[in-house]
């Protein structure tokens, strides 16, 4: 599969997801599920064909992880919609997915077939895929927190949707970390080495755990909890791509996205 075909798959998927978002907003559940599912199917076909073409999981570069994020956002959106029927969630997931797709169209960062030995572990793919799904859910929680803080401004209303998204997102973060530990043990002989990426991953995991603890025990105001979510999302961005620019990660971290 040549990367030049991505635009056709991407546009087709976005058209389906847009139709699904419109149907969800109008309360047409069957149409929302059908069209969103069709978009996910089209996008997954491209990922599978790219995987076959590269002869490796498309997970090595930042552009390739954005590809998965573009897929998981609508998937997370339809899961949330099916469970809680939030009308806005499909629109959010479609818009944000479109942003990542646009970035990949202008700066794909999809490279050759080579994959360093450490990334050839069977734990590598599930580790990254699970993390991308967690990031999608926690991104939705962040958007909802911003909406409640700056647009709705009703702090007395319990942000249950944020709680639900964080609970599920944090669970997938935990699973992703466990997969990562198994990968590290197989590749480098140790479950944890305090690599810069691992350090920020641990900080992010603990930050969301603090939010969960405060919410379950009602030890903070709603406004404070929402601000914690915003700070946590900034930590998440640092964990995902921000470490690429840290001097401590240059040439030492196996988690930075580069061409080597």
Q: Topology, pairings included?
A:
Layout (H helix, E strand, L loop, with lengths): L5 H20 L3 H26 L7 H23 L4 H18 L17 H29 L7 H29 L7 H22 L4 H19 L20
Helix pairs in contact: 1-2, 1-4, 2-3, 3-4, 3-5, 5-6, 5-8, 6-7, 7-8
Structure notes:
This protein is 72% helix and 0% strand. With 260 residues, the protein is mostly helical. It folds into two domains: 1-113, no CATH class; 121-253. The two termini are 23 Å apart. It is found in: Membrane.
What key phrases describe this protein's structure?
single chain; 8 helices; mainly alpha; about 260 residues; 2 domains
Provide a concise account of the structure shown.
This protein has 260 residues and is an all-alpha fold. Helix content is 72%, strand content 0%.
């Amino acid at each position: 599969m040549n990367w030049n075909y991505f635009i056709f798959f991407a546009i087709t998927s976005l058209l389906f997801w847009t139709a699904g978002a419109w149907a969800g907003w109008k309360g047409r559940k069957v149409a929302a599920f059908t069209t969103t599912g069709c978009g996910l199917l089209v996008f997954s076909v491209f990922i599978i064909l790219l995987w076959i073409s590269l002869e490796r999981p498309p997970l090595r570069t930042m552009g390739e992880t954005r590809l998965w994020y573009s897929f998981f956002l609508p998937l997370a959106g339809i899961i949330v919609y099916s469970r809680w029927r939030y009308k806005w969630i499909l629109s959010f997931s479609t818009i944000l997915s479109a942003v990542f797709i646009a970035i990949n169209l202008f700066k794909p960062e999809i490279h050759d077939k080579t994959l360093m030995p450490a990334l050839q572990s069977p734990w590598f793919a599930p580790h990254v895929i699970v993390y991308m799904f967690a990031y999608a859910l926690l991104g939705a929680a962040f958007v909802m927190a911003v909406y409640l803080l700056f647009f709705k401004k009703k702090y007395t209303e319990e942000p249950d949707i944020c709680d639900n998204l964080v609970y599920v997102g944090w669970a997938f973060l935990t699973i992703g970390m466990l997969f990562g530990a198994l990968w590290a043990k197989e590749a480098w002989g140790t479950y944890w080495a305090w690599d810069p990426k691992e350090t920020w991953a641990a900080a992010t995991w603990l930050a969301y755990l603090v939010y969960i603890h405060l919410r379950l025990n009602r030890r903070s105001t709603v406004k404070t909890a929402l601000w914690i979510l915003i700070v946590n999302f900034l930590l998440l961005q640092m964990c995902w791509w921000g470490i690429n620019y840290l001097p401590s990660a240059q040439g030492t971290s196996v988690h930075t996205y580069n061409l080597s």
